[in-house]
Amino acid sequence: MKNFNRDIFLIGFMGTGKSAISSQLGEMMALEVLDTDALIVNSTGMSIPEIFERKGQDYFRTQETEILQKISKTKRHVISCGGGVVLKAENIEIMKKAGKIILLTASAETIYQRVKNDEQRPLLKGNLNAEYINELMGKRQAAYHEAADIIIETDHKNMAEICSEIITKLEILEGTE
């Protein structure tokens, strides 16, 4: 599917595999790979935890919207988005206009296993456990599902299987439009 001329936005809770999948999917589809969190870190000169600590979550969300506006002006990207990108309706609108939104999901226990040694997760500070992760995911679930064009479960699948599933579902979706 190398003739896909739009953007592909990977959304989902932290630890669902957005960064890892974006790299392989970009390679398979010959698309440039971008990461909104990395772009925010580059533009602000601060790590994500520093931004949350010094400037707050609202500032971070504003930066996220500005990054989405910039990157959506050109096409042919796979974009790994921060876990809270769907918390602003404006972000969803930008992504819908620019391309397709793929929701990656995983169980709270799988996410816990993937992020338990990661100190760069400000929303989990002091609450790094499957129960808290499940609670946070529950608060965002409706927004994720409402935004998504395609939903892919990542539990018990390798990256190649996930990417193949994304491409197949994109081909089906593109064929119906």
Automatic annotation (TrEMBL):
InterPro entries, per database record: P-loop_NTPase (IPR027417), Shikimate/glucono_kinase (IPR031322), Shikimate_kinase/TSH1 (IPR000623), Shikimate_kinase_CS (IPR023000)
Cofactor(s) in the UniProt record: Mg(2+)
Key word Kinase present: yes
Protein's recorded name: Shikimate kinase
Enzyme Commission number, as recorded: 2.7.1.71
GO biological process, alphabetically ordered: amino acid biosynthetic process; aromatic amino acid family biosynthetic process; chorismate biosynthetic process
Lineage: Bacteria, Bacillati, Bacillota, Clostridia, Peptostreptococcales
Amino acids binding Mg(2+): 19
Known partners and oligomeric status: Monomer.
Listed GO MF terms: ATP binding; magnesium ion binding; shikimate kinase activity
Record-level GO cellular component terms: cytosol
Known catalytic reactions: shikimate + ATP = 3-phosphoshikimate + ADP + H(+)
Main location (coarse class): cytoplasm
Keyword ATP-binding attributed: yes
Note on how the cofactor is bound: Binds 1 Mg(2+) ion per subunit.
